[in-house]
Amino acid sequence: MTDQHRPHTYEEGTRAPGRADGEATRERLLLTALRLFAQRGFSATSTREIAQAAGANVAAIAYHFGDKAGLYRAAFFEPLCEPQAQAEPPWLSHNMPLAEAFAHYFAVFVEPLRQGEASRLCVQLRMREMLEPTGLWAEEIANDIRPLHEALLVLLMRALELPQPDDDLQRLALCISALGVHLHVGRDVADAVAPQLHLGPEANTKWAQCLVWQAQAMVEAERVRRSTQPEDAPLKPRRVRAGARKP
């Protein structure tokens, strides 16, 4: 919201705060709102509760965000949560190797991990938004998730030399994106079974490398499958004989 659209009344003290104080207040409100909205949802959280928990006046919410809906939107969409997908990402360059392109693609998923608790709250907020929709999740799918998916399809078509995406390529794209999504949705599980994977200054870098390796392996497996399996043949799981040991 630009300054010209903000209300001119501000009741936190006798005068409007300086820029540094104002930005600090906005940040506290945003972080507090993210936590409370993630825990309780939009309807069950009041602006008074948010302001009190943030140590700010209720009028500060109107000043910085317009209203409760504006604050919720900011907590949901701002870079605090995740980088926004680009309609024409630079990693679609024809000259970029597949591994480098995947590294740029997975940065959308890895970078939020560097924000610690805020990243967890953003995932929690999206889970709650799915259960108690306000329309923002559908908006994110249309404006961020779908364009990122379509860009990934372009990259995969180029890597596999396909003229257009088919259903199997759609499945491959969704499986590759699931690698990144699971970093966040499955974080609690990972912390429970292998907490060391998220410890140390190099943890996120190692995750990024692992995602690239796995995605490359999936593309290569799809390349082999297409070269050895008749077109339109159904995907069949490998059968294991009774009593036989699984590999």
UniProtKB/TrEMBL annotation:
InterPro entries documented for this protein: Homeodomain-like_sf, HTH-type_TetR-like_transc_reg, HTH_TetR, Tet_transcr_reg_TetR-rel_C_sf, Tscrpt_reg_YbiH_C
Coiled-coil features, chain-numbered ranges: none
Protein known as: CerR family C-terminal domain-containing protein
Lineage: Bacteria, Pseudomonadati, Pseudomonadota, Betaproteobacteria, Burkholderiales
Region (Disordered): 1-23, 224-247
Basic and acidic residues composition bias: residue spans: 224-235
DNA-binding residues: 46-65
Bias (Basic residues) ranges: 236-247
Domain HTH tetR-type: residue ranges: 23-83
Membrane-spanning segments: none
Alphabetical UniProt keywords: DNA-binding, Transcription, Transcription regulation
